[in-house]
Design brief:
This protein starts with 6 loop residues before the first strand and ends in a 27-residue tail after the last helix. The protein is 26% helix and 13% strand. A ten-stranded mixed sheet has the order 7-6-5-4-3-2-1-8-9-10. By secondary structure, it is α/β, with parallel strands linked by helices.
Amino acid sequence: MEFKLRSCVWEITLACCFSCKYCGSRAGKARENELSTEECLSVADQLAELGCRRVSMIGGEVFMRRDWAEIVGRLTSQGVRVAIITNGFLFKPELIGKLRELHIESVAVSLDGTEAVHDKYRQQGSFRRALTAIDTLHAGGVPVSVITTINSENVSLLEDMFSILKDRGIAAWQLQACSPMGNAAEGGVDYRFDPNRVIAFVERHLRCPFPLGIADNIGYYTEGEGSLRGNTSGKAVFTGCRAGLTSIGIDSIGNVRGCESMYDERFNEGNLREKSLREIWEDPDAFAYNRKFTPDLLTGACASCPKGKYCAGGCRSYNYFVHGRLYEAPACARGLKKKPPVPPKGCLNV
């Protein structure tokens, strides 16, 4: 089977002005051996050559890398759509012109609660700066969306957040589950929540002024599945983890994974300083956990679920970091009666 690369999440630096309590990559300081400008431009060329259509650029904090615009420009000049994900803390109005010049598809700002909760997990004053960034981007004509990482504390604040965001002209709002990886695995963050609560919230606001949806680590196949992922067509169903099938992740030192949320060395398929992206992508033994998936690999309740062959057991990253079993969704909304389990000792390797 031929696999076609369509999207990439690229961590261009680990440098960040925050050290959030649930940061999966433990961002803060840049790695000593991060890819140089020249190496990043080569990666951009390789992505375009393989037909990658969209790159989500992340950190760390993207705007802390001085050559971010040069790297973005290399991608957009070759027809690759680029979205930037930022915490908004360092965002300045002077960036608007550059973003428009680069034809940025969108900028996504992280917002994880009302002011007290958002600042608790990130940094004092970060909530107000995030809102200022959202307003500045919208006023400057740059499409701006919001990403919220859900945990046990902020899940009860979704309606309050909706009131804050509904009239800000945002292009979309994505809700994703906090995964117990990186800082979240050590910082005492209770990542558990009932996904049905989030799904019910999305269903109540399907006709809101902007697309509102859940990410791939929440679900699956509840009654309204087709309209829950930011698309009200009724046909946007989850078709299983796309890691290594149509998407990849690249970190700041050139490691390639099927998904940048699979932040563990065992999921590294190669390094771009040693192999070309094409060599890694076309390796017949790469990304085997998805490329060689068959329904008989499903475990737990997923093994007997009639939807198991379609969702393939849900999000590989979330599964792995919660309980270490790749093909068993620990927080599937179908028939969920309790909070996801606390991961047993020894199952996390981060």
